[in-house]
Amino acid sequence: MEFAELIKTATVESVLLSGAGLPPVRGTLCITSHHLLLSSRPGGDGAPGTVELWLLIRNVDAVEKRLAGSSGTITLRCKDLKVLQLEIPGMEECLNVASSIEALSSVDSVMMMYPFFYRPQDLRLEAGWHLFPLEQYYQQIATQTSQWRLSGVNRDFAACPTYPPAVIVPAAVDDEALRKAARFRQGGRFPVLSYYHQKNGTVMLRSSQPLTGPNRKRCREDELLLGTVLDEGERGFIIDTRSAQAAKQARMTGGGTEPKSSYPRWKRLHRPLERGRPLQESFIKLVDACNDTSLTMDRWLSRLESCRWLSHVKAALSTACLAAQCLDREEACVLVHGAEGTDTTLLVTALAQLILDPGCRTLAGFQGLLEREWIEAGHPFHLRCARSAYSHARLKQEAPLFLLFLDCVWQLGRQFPFSLEFGERLLLTLFDNAYASSYGTFLGNNEKERCLCKVKESTHSLWAWLNQPEEKRKYLNPLYSRNALVIWPSVEPQSIQLWQGLFFRWIRSSKYLDEAWAEIQRLVENDDTSVEESAGNRRSQSLSDTAAQTENER
Amino acid sequence: MEHIRTTKVEQVKLLDRFSTSNKSLTGTLYLTATHLLFIESSQRETWILHHHIAAVEKLPLTTSGCPLVIQCKNFRIVHFVVPRERDCHDIYNSLLQLSRTAQYDELYAFSYNPKQNSSEQVKGWQLIDLAEEYKRMGVPNANWQLSDANRDYKICETYPKELYVPRTASKPIIVGSSKFRSKGRFPVLSYYHKDKEAAICRCSQPLSGFSARCLEDEHMLQAISKANPSNRFMYVMDTRPKLNAMANRAAGKGYENEDNYSNIRFQFVGIENIHVMRSSLQKLLEVSGTKGLSVNDFLSGLENSGWLRHIKAVLDAAVFLVKAIAVESASVLVHCSDGWDRTSQVCSLGALLLDSYYRTIKGFMVLIEKDWISFGHKFSDRCCQLDGDPKEISPVFTQFLESVWNLTEQFPQGFEYNEAFLLQIHEHVHSCQFGNFLGNCQKEREELKFKEKTYSLWPFLLQEQKKYQNPLYNPDFSPELTLLEPNTVSFNFKFWRNMYHQFDRSMHPRQSVLDLIMNMSEQNKQMEKDIKELEAKIKRKNSQSDAVLVKEPLQSAPPAPMALKTSPCFKKEQPLMPVNDSVRTIEGSNTADNRYSEFMEEFSKAEPAVVSLEYGMARMTC
């Protein structure tokens, strides 16, 4: 396929661009294989144009056209939730532009995506791809215990097509047993180590559902694998992210859950989390409500309620807290799974780690977490993020699990503003890049696909770009100071907020909030040189002051 | 003291409001003449002023004792369990008596003694001088003058003595107009905008009925519009819903007929009355007080309460007023029914948006003194200071504070004061500890000699103003905008967690950015002071000893504080609370999902070694 075949009109003069809170600007529109450009010519025809728009066509979620007389208006609704309007003179041009954008934005082949063509000068292709090898993570565990080993059973993706080549498994279980256990789990996703809690040596495992089926099949190797995780007399928890009923029903289609009889030392807890289509619909409804700024208070609140997005945030955080609580307070091992083990499972395991492990709360640690628990763990980004909230296309497998995760991280950042090394801006950038990117990091659905497409060889890594000193500075939280403790969030509805920075990013002006944030940054940076630890004591004093606030009428 | 039968009860349990597990703190309950005091075994104290108590409820006896629930006007809710029913009954009856006061001189303000001498007391009351404030606005001037018509509160009992009116409004016009206005509250100046030469005026509804007219009142309005050389048209804002205003006509009251008044534009803005507001707040509190609340129940409860809708209506009205003045340079006359509730809200918020002075600590005090206290917002009735008609209670002033809080959220750099300032004012509006908010109007305050017998709140707040300063405040913030133009789109209004859950600490963010910044700037000031002292010391030394010797330390002196940076890691997040402090426990965080502890029960039975999944012991970092 040639991109040129899809481009019916490459340039149109005198197009009026408006939207996203900027004054309308007229200029020349160009369509290239991957970008939509608009440049204005302030100094007459001879002067070089100013580029007003540089939009990755992959970012376009929906194209709407409206014709009026001899001209037409195209509304571009982007995956990052931005909305742009192009007023194009000439009906035919308008139709051509619209259909070109539509065709280019729906190219579905991974190898045709922009990251394969993007060659920035100041980055090396291989940089950033091997920053967080699982081997390194394993080495950390190996210094604490010898109960775990790094297995190459999936070296050729034979045992599990959605797992990475290397996985961490109990040392006592050999590869042959792993292969058999894999056959007993949906998609071959046998239980593997997700997180080792250094404080007490407990672990969090993840997998997919067991294939017990209607006949209550058993698998000795799977039982053995989970059995060896627990020491003599220990008990563990299985957190199933489906309701008890849904888990039971899954038996009819060959799935199911671990019966007590065959896993007597594991206690099953059901915490239903929404995923798939209902979650995508929740996202669509929320964005729809946010975009309607004419809503009365009652309508706004009722639509915020009926979209259920904040309920999903609360449920995800609560379940992650439960997992973290089992590990940290109960000192018990945990296995997390839903059905496929690629969506809500990863949401819970990644969030729990962020709550428990200060290492994950640094910029590098967070990238490592994303790499390990989302990308390598096989969250199908290509399917889940194919379309965003505006698309009119029939929903296939889209679901904003990753966005939900980012939202939960944002909530943690709101409740613990000093505990995350990165700020909101990183979360926004990750959201944008998960849906449309110049980098290969979120391409494909799993390591096997990325291997086949040679993603690591032919595209640039987002991390390489983010970690350049100049870029990195923008994503750091100036208030950060390492907090070695577990950060337990409040999950009361009164404590959970709508993520305005994302959902209203293009809708309301954030000028005053941005200025205030810049001021905080300035104050902190000026201060960093002069503050020493007594600040901590003073702060504690001010906290008890507020506690005493009501007592001052004595 | 005759109401107090039991002064001390031991082994009382204090339950956590949101915990589903019956976790509690044990301590001793003391009853004093002014406060209810609970001292935990860890010596932590909870003081509750009797005046703050809105309701006391005795719940049915349980195995562990007799539960006593106290709801406070500052939205604190405490749940005690008293071991013996007899004691509980005594405390209950005492509190019922003590929280209801029949006379002003029984209020706390009359026994409160902050150890000031009488000249300090007088000076405290003189801190806010409204004559000075009108001068600041630029009146009297060619068009506006001070009228002595209400010198002895003869024309209007609920207005202050000093009133500013248009120069062309003669005494007969004033008297005539006041007779045509409910409670005699005729149109007077509330705020004068120097640059636009436009005025915010306030009054009560006209006694127009279905057809009555009053020439003096028509002249009065004409005088107001003529006092504005920039725009002869003026707006008349009736802040009530149209239906309410029309219903008033049947009672001989109502609203202005545009045909009878020249050059006016009449506008309804639809803020609901005190009764609607009271029940709205009640609904809001019911929802926010529910244990184990789901997000959807919270949002639908928030919607059903209508509370945020009312806050938005108030702020929308203020924005409408501000546009008339700032864009059209038109004067605006604001009224509702009696002109002391919604009118106070809209006039004061309008002025706050127009004039950055009211966004300073001192200016905000002035604003409250002017539009609320002096113009007769009935604080005593609305806040139930004396035992009276429960139908008169209404959170009108709370709504004003909440509207201001919403503005501070939208303009983080626009206000000199912070949220704590608003909360503290709210606290004292109900505490009856200071004289400012006692009574319903100035006349009453004068007759009862409040200024001689009580203290003013403002000097105390100014004294500790460090606590109330917004560290991000930038007086030059957007200099082109002394005018604030808030965006009143629905999603900008948020539930004010720090007000309604002020005492439910587990719900709040565990780390506060503003506190940190405040401490930092505090510390910087201290360091600058230290540097200056050091420099001075060196200079002194310098002059004493050989100049050559001291030259070096002189140069190195200024960066000296940097050397203090002994540890590169600024410990922003060390555990700040003592270990036994329950305030920072995580308990709140699991209450909503605390339903995730129930699974432990059966499991624990099978395996006694497993500790029950109680979250309560998790200590917060900060």
Explain what you see.
Chain A has 554 residues and is an alpha+beta fold. Chain A has helices spanning 3-6, 91-105, 134-142, 175-183, 220-229, 244-249, 276-291, 297-307, 309-328, 344-356, 363-376, 381-384, 401-415, 424-435, 447-452, 455-458, 462-466, 469-475, 500-503, 511-527, 534-548, and strands at residues 11-19, 22-31, 35-40, 50-56, 60-68, 71-78, 83-89, 148-151, 167-170, 192-197, 202-206, 236-240, 266-270, 333-337. Chain A is globular and about 80 Å long. Chain B is α+β, with helices and mostly antiparallel strands and 622 residues long. In chain B, the strands form three sheets. Chain B has a seven-stranded antiparallel beta sheet, with helices on one face. Chain B is globular and about 70 Å long. The chains are: A alpha+beta (554), B alpha+beta (622).
Number of strands of chain B: 14
Shape of chain A: globular
Class by SSE composition of chain A? alpha+beta
Low-confidence stretches of chain B: 547-622
Helix coverage percent of residues of chain A? 25-40%
The number of helical elements of chain B comes to: 23
Name the biggest interface: A-B, 94 and 112 residues
**Strand order within the widest beta sheet of chain A:** 4-3-2-1-7-6-5
C-alpha Rg of chain A (nearest Å): 25 Å
Structural class of chain B: alpha+beta
Q: Work out the helix count of chain A.
A: 21
Q: Give the distance, in angstroms, between the N- and C-terminal Cα atoms of chain A.
A: 81 Å
The Cα radius of gyration of chain B reads 28 Å
Principal-axis shape of chain B: globular
InterPro entries (chain A): Myotubularin, Myotubularin-like_Pase_dom, PH-GRAM_MTMR6-9, PH-like_dom_sf, Prot-tyrosine_phosphatase-like
Domain Myotubularin phosphatase (chain A): 128-503
Protein name (chain A): Myotubularin-related protein 9-like isoform X6
Biased composition (Polar residues) (chain A): 537-554
